[in-house]
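Quick one, tokens below:
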């Protein structure tokens, strides 16, 4: 029996309290988070606590307490010693298929005068991971030392790396337990998990991209809005101004899905934004402008939007991206010789539509899972990735396609792989003689 001598708390009594729908005190939550971190709270007790929260939820006060204690379970980054001349700001997405925004957004915001220390995750399940896309670039180091990370942020303005074991270690253990106890889908626990890591980065402001639709974690709009409100309120109560955008994930974001193919699309968007996918540029511009305005670089959203557009179209963002890649070990001439460095597949072949009509709807999750099947994604954290596999030139919802015209191009190793991807895409894309209703790219800003 584990008893905390300072507080005389019993884990099972705190769990019982939450199981019965009562609110926990800050001291009780502090005790639990300490137990998660030092493993005095057993896996069974942690799983029971997660299930109790799943069924009975937490008040906003409890969510703030859990977030702050998990944030302080490890190292909280400090930036004062670097004497930076701009704010520290970040963006986080709840995940989607083809969501490559961060690779374009971070250098845009950095070139506008803010600093972006972006700590990103690898993909798991049907959603792709920002870090996996960057790891398709030879030499790129996703795990530099803290000193190197800070130096790159100061020198370039942004750096995108993976989560370290020092940041919010309580969350790492708690998330692993939730993953195997069917308790992931809790607004309270999602909020504390996201924010404990982001706030540990020492941010002045945060912008959230909360996705909704059949390719998102929050498929239903009401769930996405509840999550956005929770994140915004908890972050603000924790001292970090936060804005949440609820955005569409009923179709792939951009024209590609995979890892190397998405890096190529990002480089093309940075170097030739006028010809880039409009949905990708629009959402990136809006998120970047919100970051610029919220962090105080510009006073109003119109000025911030113009600054973002100028950065993108002048080439400043592309130059910042190139410098970030080279400072973290990648090739210095990646933008000039992209095809030389990124993996290419033996087969690049169109997947043609059987019927003529409008692209009426897309099962985005199925497309994401087809990537997992062909090793462009993972179902377990230990799975290896095939960086070259992907889809490009994906038709958007509402576009007209003739029978025999390409819905997308498959990038694969073998004919069997092509047939697998073709079968999944044909099943996932509904072509109809009826034009679909137009859905907004951004539903709401909270």
């Amino acid at each position: 029996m584990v008893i905390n001598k300072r507080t005389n708390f019993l884990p099972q009594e705190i769990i019982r309290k939450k199981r019965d729908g009562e609110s926990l005190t800050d001291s009780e939550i502090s005790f639990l988070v300490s137990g998660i971190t030092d493993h005095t709270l057993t896996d069974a007790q942690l799983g029971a606590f997660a299930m109790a929260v799943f069924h009975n939820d937490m008040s906003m006060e409890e969510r703030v307490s859990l977030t702050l204690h998990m944030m302080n379970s490890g190292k909280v980054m400090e930036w004062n010693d670097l004497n930076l001349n701009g704010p520290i700001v970040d963006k986080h997405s709840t995940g989607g298929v083809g969501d490559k925004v961060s690779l374009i957004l971070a250098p845009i915001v950095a070139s506008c005068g803010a600093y972006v220390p972006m700590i990103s995750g690898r993909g798991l399940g049907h959603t792709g991971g920002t870090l996996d896309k960057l790891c398709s670039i030879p030499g790129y180091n996703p795990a530099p030392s803290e000193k190197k990370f800070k130096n790159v942020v100061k020198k370039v303005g942004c750096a995108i790396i993976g989560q370290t074991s020092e940041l919010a270690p309580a969350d790492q253990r708690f998330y692993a337990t939730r993953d195997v106890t069917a308790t992931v889908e809790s607004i309270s626990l999602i909020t504390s998990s996201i924010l404990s890591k982001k706030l540990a980065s020492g941010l002045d402001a945060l912008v959230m991209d909360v996705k909704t639709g059949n390719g998102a974690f929050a498929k239903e709009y009401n769930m996405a809005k509840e999550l956005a409100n929770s994140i915004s309120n908890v972050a603000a109560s924790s001292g970090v101004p936060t804005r949440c955008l609820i955005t569409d994930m009923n179709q792939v974001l951009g024209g590609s899905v995979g890892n190397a193919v998405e890096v190529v699309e990002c480089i093309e968007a940075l170097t030739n934004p006028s010809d880039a996918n409009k949905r990708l540029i629009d959402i990136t511009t809006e998120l970047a402008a919100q970051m610029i305005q919220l962090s105080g670089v510009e006073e109003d959203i119109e000025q911030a939007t113009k600054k973002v557009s100028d950065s993108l179209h002048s080439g400043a963002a592309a130059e910042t991206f190139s410098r970030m890649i080279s400072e973290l070990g990648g090739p210095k001439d990646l933008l000039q010789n992209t095809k030389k460095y990124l993996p290419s597949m033996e087969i690049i072949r169109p997947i043609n539509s059987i019927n003529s009509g409008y692209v009426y709807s897309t099962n985005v999750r199925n497309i994401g899972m087809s990537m997992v099947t062909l090793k462009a994604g993972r179902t377990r954290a230990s799975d290896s990735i095939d960086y070259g596999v992907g889809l490009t030139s994906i038709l958007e919802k509402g576009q007209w396609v003739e029978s025999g015209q390409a819905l997308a191009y498959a990038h694969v190793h073998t004919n069997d792989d092509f047939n697998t991807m073709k079968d999944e895409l044909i099943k996932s894309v509904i072509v109809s003689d009826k034009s679909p209703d137009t859905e907004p790219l951004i539903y709401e800003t909270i």
